[in-house]
Amino acid sequence: MATMEVRLVSPEKVLFTGEATQVITRTLGGGEIAFLPGHAPFLGALTECHTRISMADGSVLDVAVHGGFVQVAGNTVSILSDLAELGEQIDRGRAMRAKENAEEFLRKEHDAEAVSALSRAHARLAASGGVVGTTQGAH
Amino acid sequence: MAGGQERILRGRIRSVQATKKITRAMELIAASRIVKAQQRVAAAVPYSDSITDVVKDLAAAGGSSQSPLLVSRPEVKTTAYVVITADRGLCGGYNAGVQRATEGEIKAGVLQGSNYAVVTVGRKALGYFRFRGYTIAQSFGGFSDNPTYADAKAIGEYVVDAYLRGEFDRVELVYTRFISAGSQEVVQRPLVPLDSEVVAGGDGKAPDAAGTPADYEFEPDPGTILDTLLPRYVEARIYAALLNAAASEHAFRQRAMKSATDNAEELIKNLSRIMNRARQDSITTEIMEIVGGAEALAGDAKKHQQVDLGPLDDTLSAATH
User: Fold this and answer.
1) Percent of residues in chain A assigned helix, strand, coil, to nearest 5
2) From CA B141, how far away is CA B114, in angstroms rounded?
3) Which residue among B44, B217, B225 sits closest to A41, beta carbon to beta carbon?
4) Domains annotated on chain A, with CATH
């Protein structure tokens, strides 16, 4: 099967590189987008999301990407993010508490910071396994 | 008297030895951290390369140069200097080099009638510029030997925000670039507005090399991407500068502590020599005193013997009689 190179790069280090068959992520205001090998050159800004990388061996790598950019060029998908966490490294308990705190806060007043905290928590939970009350997830 | 001098010297040697132990330890710590800091500089390269690529592609694809971060202001009234120094001293001329370069720039600017603002990074720069009465717009510190991206983000957000508010018309970054463990140099780099050279693809890949950038699809539109991207780009630049500065700081500290250790060794050698001579002197004096005393006693004893021997002779002679 055709594959492409995927790089997940944070400012401090390269989090992941590998061969993959599909990458699903979510652009700012544009909804989810999937990249397959040989995709046309693409540049996009990302929101907090659960990014799924389908590896060449059939496994799926879940990543919580908290904003950033995606660049597709020459069969390479580069995801640049200030803050990205691999699914297996996420502390679910902490993400859960963060989600509850943010929801609690939002019940009282609307606050941009709490909204982004909530979406971060959602992305973390989605990337680390079971999904509670989000629309993302099935795979 | 002589013994007293020896004791004082022994005390000094002991204190120099203690100092030497400290400087040696600092030297070894700095040496081990250089390697780590170098690795961090290298680890940050992929991100900054990629983000530079993206900025170039966007700009080349006509990503509308409407972003205020890209447009140079016609009249530069206030230039802000982001000065990156260490939090601690004991690193030779590291802090002084950066501070002197910045101060020179500021003075040159003031002579031409432009305003300045100092943004200090590292506690040493804060102390230096505050003591000399410069206006300090903002200060950051507490992370100079181990900066994280969050630190760079905080500085970047402040700088971009102040620039967009019109407090600064130009921002310069002054830091020490790490070339190798043996050489570092103080450099001054323009930070904002973003170098049109860099953004227009002045260096790096040619726009028409592989797949013209115009082929890119954008989501959302290039302008919006650019607006979110440019602050990240500024942060990445600051982060790279912080990492370079941290590696340089360790290199400077290692060198400074190495020469301090060498000096301490030299001092110990000289002091030991003086102490040994003093001890030798005092021993010689003591021997002289003993010999002199013994001689005097011997003289006394001879006299005594003659006096004492008198009756002994008498008894002897009496016995023989």
Assistant:
1) 25, 45, 30
2) 27
3) B217
4) 4-87 (2.60.15.10), 90-127 (no CATH)
Rounded to a whole number, what is the distance in Å from the CA of B279 to chain A's nearest CA?
Answer: 60
Residue-range domains of chain B with CATH: 25-264 (3.40.1380.10)
Minimal Cα–Cα distance from B134 to chain A, Å?
A: 33
Question: For the residues B126-142, what does the mean pLDDT come to?
Answer: 93
Question: Using the beta-carbon criterion (under 8 Å), do B220 and A9 form an inter-chain contact?
Answer: no
Q: Measured between CB atoms, does B153 come within 8 Å of chain A? A: yes
Structure tokens at B269: 């050698």
Residue recorded with tokens 């990205």: A84
Closest CA to A28 of A15, A43, A14: A43
Does the structure show a pLDDT above 60 at B207?
Answer: no
ipTM exceeding 0.85, yes/no: no
Sequence-distant (≥ 6) Cβ neighbours of residue B50 within 8 angstroms: A7, A9, A71, A78, A80
Spatial contact of B253 and B92, defined as CB atoms under 8 Å apart: yes
pTM for the model: 0.82
For the question of residue B161 being annotated catalytic, the response is: no
Question: Rounded CA gap, B85 and B122, in Å?
Answer: 5
Q: What are phi and psi of A103, to 5 degrees?
A: -65, -45
The pairing of beta strand A60-73 with beta strand A76-80: antiparallel
Q: What is the distance, to the nearest Å, from the Cα of residue A83 to the centroid of all Cα atoms in its chain?
A: 10
Whether B101 contacts B138, CB under 8 Å: no
Q: Say which amino acid occupies A112.
A: A
Q: A36: distance to nearest CA of chain B, Å?
A: 15
Segment A54-75, tens digit of pLDDT: 998 888 888 889 889 999 988 8
Q: What is the pLDDT of residues B274-309, one digit of tens each?
A: 999 999 998 999 999 999 999 898 887 776 665 555
Q: DSSP letter string over B155-191?
A: HHHHHHHHHHTTS-SEEEEEEEEEEETTEEEEEEEEE
What is the C-alpha to C-alpha distance for residues B225 and B272, in angstroms, rounded to an integer? 70
Which of A32, A80, A81, A85 to probe the B interface (max B CBs under 10 A)? A80
CA distance B42 to B48: 10
